[in-house]
Amino acid sequence: MAVGKRQNIREIITKRFIGFFILVVMLFVVLLFNLYKIVFINGEILRNDVFNTYIKERSVDATRGNIYSDDGSLLATSLPKYRLGLDPSVYNRNAISEKNFKEHIDELANALANFFQDRSAEEYKNKIVAAKKSGKTYLLLNNRLLDFQERKKVAKFPLFNLGEATKTGIVFDKVNVRYAPFGQMAYRTVGYLKDKVAVGIEGSFNAELKGTPGKGFFEKMDKNTWRPVEGGEESVPKPGLDIYTTLDINIQDIVESALMKAMTTYEGDYGVVIVMETATGEIKAISNLSKNSNSPTGYSESFNYAIREARDPGSVFKLPSMMAMLEEADLPLDMPVSTGNGKYHHYNGTMSDSHPMGTISVAQVIESSSNVGTMVLMKKVFSSKPAKFYDYLKKYHLIESLHFQIQPNPKPNFPVPAKWDAFQLLWSSVGYSTQYSPLQLIAFYNAIANNGYWVQPIIVSKATRADEVVIDYRSKQVRDASPLCSPKTLEKIQTMLEGVVTRGTANNIKGTSYGIAGKTGTAQRIINGRYIPGKYYTSFIGYFPVKKPKYTILVSIDNPQGHAEATYARQVTAPVFKEIADNIYLRDMKLHRKLSGTLPDSLNTASLSHTVHPMDQSILYSSLGLPRVEEDGSWLEFKMDKQTVQNTPLSFPAKTVPNVVGMNLRDALFALENRGLKVKANGLGTVVSQSIPPGSPTRKNLLLQIQLR
C-alpha cells in the first residue's frame, strides 16, 4: 500500500512537471513567435518609428553669403555662435570619470554661475547631478549664445579642461548668427530675416544669399534640441553667394547724421534721404527715420519709406509736367503767364499759390513754384488732349513700376485718362491726387542731371562666389537709348532748376563753390481721405555739381513741426540737401578744382607753415616766386618765416598712418582715405591732432578721428 502511494505521488509530480514544461515550451514558442513578428514582420515599421522619433534626417543650413558695400566693407555677415550643452553620461563610464566629477563639480557649478549670472552655483550643480543620475546623454546648460572668445573661456572651466569633449562631456552647439559690423547703418535697406519677416537686401536676395542646404542625421536630445550624429551627414551644404551693394558707407554716414539732425530739429513723423550716382543710377545711400519712443534718439529705421511709401509728391511733380508742356508746345522761358490773385478756380475746386504773384514768366512758374501758373499752362497745352500728357509721363517712367531690386516697390498711383474726372489733369500737374515713392521721383530728376538719359536705379551690383562673379546685375540694368526730351527742352529745364536755387524758392542754399540745381516741394498731407491745412509733406530733389552733375539727392520730411518756419521745403529739406552735398564734396577729391588766383603780398613778410597738396604746388610757387620742388606727386612741408623759406618733401611709408597735422580737411581726407582709413572729423580749420599716431601700422577700414581748429 505504501509502495503504491509513493508511485502515485511520483506520477503526479511527473505529470505536473511535464505540464509545467509544456507550458514553458509554449510560452517560449509564443515568445519566439512574437520576437519573429517584431523583427521580421513589424520590425521595419517599428524601427522607422523609433528612428523618426529619436533620429531624423534634417536640413543642414548653408553658410549665408556676406553683404558688402561698394568698397568691400562688410555690411552683414554670419558669425558662429555656440550654445553650451553637456553630455552627463560620460561621468558614469568608469571610476576615473566618477572621481573627476566628484572632485570638480562644485568648481564647475561656481564657474557657470559666475559666467552666466542667471542662477546660483547650487542650482547648476543640482541640474547636472540630476541629469547624470537619470542617464541623460544631453543637457542644455544655458540658452545664451557664446562668441568664439567666450567659447574658449568656457572650455577652460573646471572639469571641462581635463581632456577631450568625449571625456569631459562639454558640447558646443554651433548656431550661425547674422552680424552687422556697422550696427544700425542702413539698417532697413540692408535688411534682416526675423520671425518669418524678410526685408531689405537680406529678404529680396535671400535665394542668392542662403545657398543650398545639405542633409544630415540628428539625434533628438530633448523637446527642442537636436544634435548631429557623427558620420551621418549625407550631403554637404553649399555656401550662399556674396552680395555687393552700391552703397558708400562714407556717404551713408553723412546722410544718416544730417537726416537725424533735421528730424530732431523739426520733429517730423518720418524722413527720407536717397543719394544716387548720376551717371550709373547706383544708390550710394538710403536713410529712413521714423518716430520711435523706444529709441534713445526718438527715431529709428522701421520702414523703408524711400521705396515702399507712395505719397502725393507736391510741387516736385511740376517738373515732369513742365517738361511735357515744353516738349508739346515749345514754350519760351520768358513767355508771360498770368496768375492773377494767386487762386485758380476749377469747377468746385480751388488751388492757391503761397502768395499772389501776378504776371510771371514760364521760368518763374518753376522757380517760384506757382500752382496757378502750372495749371494755366497745363490747361492751355493739354486740355484738348489729356491723354497726350499721360503718354509723356509713361515715357518718363512715371506710370509703371521701377522693378527695383528691393521688393516690394509699388507701382505709381496715376489713373488712366479714361478714369479721369474734371480735376485729374490739372490737380495731378501740381502733384496732387497721385501717389509716388521717393525712389520713383529721384529716378526722373536723375535723368535731367544725366543729360536727359534715364537709368534704372540699382542697389546691388553683383553676386560672387570667392573671386568669381556669378551674377552681374549691372548688365541687367535698364538704360534708355534716347533721352526723355529734346536738347532744347532739357536746357530749359536745367536752367529753371538752377534758377530755383539762385533766385527762387531755394535761394537760401545758393552760393556754394560747386553749384546746386533742384526743386522744392510742399504738399498738404491727406488724413482720412482729406487734405489737412497746416500738415505738410516737404521735399527737395536736386543734383550737384551743377555743371557736371555727379550725385542726385532726394530729401523728404513728413509733417515737420516744432518751429514756426517748419512749413515749406525751403526751410526744412533744402538745407539738409546742402549739408549732405557739402560733406560729400569735401570728401570727393575728384569734384575739386585746382586753386586759382594769387596770394596777397602780406604773406611775403608773414610766418607760415603748411602741408601742401601736390595739386596746389604749382599755384603756390608761381604766386610767391619761391624755390620750386620737382613735382613728383609728393606732399610738401612748406615753412616760411619772413624771408626764410624751407621746403621739405614729405613721404608716407606704405601701410602706415600718415601725419596729417597741419593739413586742411580736404588734404587730410585725401591722405588718410587713400590708405583705406575711415575718417571722422571734428571742427573747422586745420588738423591739430589725430587719434592714431603717425607711423602706426594701418589696415583697411581702421577708424581714425581728427580734430580741426
UniProtKB/TrEMBL annotation:
SMART domains: PASTA. One of its GO terms (biological process) is cell wall organization. One of its GO terms (cellular component) is plasma membrane. PROSITE patterns: PASTA (PS51178). The chain crosses the membrane at residues 17-36. It is found in: Membrane. Keywords: Carboxypeptidase, Hydrolase, Membrane, Protease, Transmembrane, Transmembrane helix. The keyword Glycosyltransferase does not apply. GO terms for molecular function: carboxypeptidase activity; penicillin binding. InterPro entries: Beta-lactam/transpept (IPR050515), Beta-lactam/transpept-like (IPR012338), PASTA_dom (IPR005543), PBP_dimer (IPR005311), PBP_dimer_sf (IPR036138), PCN-bd_Tpept (IPR001460). Pfam families: PASTA (PF03793), PBP_dimer (PF03717), Transpeptidase (PF00905). Residues 652-709 form the PASTA domain. This is PASTA domain-containing protein.
